[in-house]
Amino acid sequence: MSIKKLVSLLRESLRRRPRPEVPRRLRFGLMSLEDRRLPDASFALVGNAVQLDGFDPGASVEMETIAANTFQFTLTGDVWDATLLPSADFSLDVTNTILTTTTATPITGLEVGSVNNPAIVTDGALGVQVADLTIHATGDVTLNAAANDFDNVSIAGDDVVITDADDLTLDIVSANNTLTVDATGPVSDLAGSDVSATNNGSFSGSTIDLGNGMFNVGTLTFNSAGSVSIAEDSGTDIVGTNTAGSLDLTSTGAIDDSAATSIGVTSLADFDGTSISLGGGTFNAGTLTFNSAGSVTIAEDSGTDIVGSNSAGSLDLDSTGAIDDAGATDVTISGHADFNGSSISLGAGTFNADTLTFNSV
């Protein structure tokens, strides 16, 4: 028998063989996305921290401390997984949308969402009081209750608002749009922190100390009756109304306030950047120190008292009052220095400029 005829007979035999029946339980079908059953949101107490995860897309959580060591989480757009009960640590309402902690274990941390299962997060009228707060959010995070009290926070979201009743420490905080931090006590960040906002970053506290780790915001607003120390790892664009008891502002790029309404510093204002341009709005400082390898342009709406060690590639300093360097160690301008004030007194310390222009009436 030829090979060709043998192959033909084998094909015919296979075609006539009956097809085996597939058991029903092994059959597969297609289900529309709308009819698909997604897992419910999960909850757990891990050590001293409550972990909430597994949210449906677009779900939102309202958090609230309703009594000492008792937290309530109201879920919209999803339900909590009732199969995780009974539990000595949690209880659910009949709709499975309100989760309440019932544990005797002291709760010191809250972690809401994960990179793969984030949620929109808000607080209730009673606020949230917990030491460590971590939130992964797809949309806005709005924690603006006056009674909020956090120690350390790590938050990712679009518009992020954090209000705190006393001191607040930022760790890993990022806002795709704006970041607003308002604390009654000091606002600071950790040595290994990363704080960023694509657009405006606004900070208020009794004191402000930012840039101990990475710090970058699109535009900057600060308000404090105490000291403000900010080190930005990019250019610094000051906007809006800004106040400080004292200011130490360092930037790896240019410092600019062209869009600022006002900057008011009660005592020393110290600026360090690749270039400095101040006075786009109202600018007033008790005393002034500047350092830049580039151009420095400052227009002050009062007298200008230069102190400490100062340097600039070029300097254009205008004052509606007197310009004085009685408290300065040195003023060194490698290029042109231009002064305009009601009176000008320079050289109390070391003073050097390559070329000089002055005007006073």
Written overview of the protein:
Helix content is 4%, strand content 59%. It has 361 residues and is mainly β. The longest helix is centred in the first third of the chain and has 14 residues, at 3-16. The N and C termini lie far apart (121 Å). The model is unreliable at 24-37 (pLDDT under 50).
**Rough outline:** elongated
Average pLDDT confidence is 92
What is the string of SSEs from the N terminus onward?
A: HEEEEEEEEEEEEEEEEEEEEEEEEEEEEE
- Low-pLDDT windows of residues: 24-37
Alpha-carbon distance between the two ends: 121 Å
- Helical residue percent? under 10%
Strand residue percentage: over 45%
- What structural class results from the helix and strand content? mainly beta
Would you count the extended β strands for me?
Answer: 29
Tally of individual helices = 1
Largest sheet, strands/sense/barrel: 29 strands, mixed
Radius of gyration: 31 Å
Chain-wise SSE layout:
Elements: H1 3-16, E1 42-46, E2 49-53, E3 60-67, E4 70-76, E5 90-92, E6 98-101, E7 109-112, E8 120-123, E9 129-136, E10 141-143, E11 149-157, E12 160-164, E13 168-175, E14 179-183, E15 187-204, E16 208-210, E17 214-223, E18 227-232, E19 236-244, E20 246-251, E21 255-272, E22 276-278, E23 282-291, E24 295-300, E25 304-312, E26 314-319, E27 322-340, E28 343-345, E29 350-359
Parallel strand pairs: 2-7, 3-8, 7-9, 8-10, 9-11, 10-12, 11-13, 12-14, 13-15, 14-15, 15-16, 15-17, 16-18, 17-19, 18-20, 19-21, 20-21, 21-22, 21-23, 22-24, 23-25, 24-26, 25-27, 26-27, 27-28, 27-29
Antiparallel strand pairs: 1-2, 3-4, 4-6, 5-6
